[in-house]
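FAQ: What does the model actually see?

It sees only this:
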Amino acid sequence: QVHLVESGGGLVQPGGSLRLSCAAYGIIFSNYFMGWYRQAPGKQRELVAHIQSDGGTDYADSVKGRFTISKDNAKNTFDLQMGSLKREDTGVYYCNVYKLGFNYWGQGTQVTVSS
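And it is asked to produce this:
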């Protein structure tokens, strides 16, 4: 069965850093697209960062310059390095692996930015 497992969430102070990781099982990682999404309380889920099969990346305007998405095809993992965290970054973060006709989600990991 295909499943994704997120890790690395937690409580961090504003200005701090956190690294999230997603491990994928049951699929061949290469040639998939990967993304990190988040959902803040009372808000819709939004795309935070996306990495293409060729390694190209895209970021939400709100996180540009602060977050970095990366992947390791050999290990079937991809990460989200988050820096200069702000209170508005608080939310549940979900990893996503997809291609045309397929869409897989992790269970989510809580990130709380608070002093």
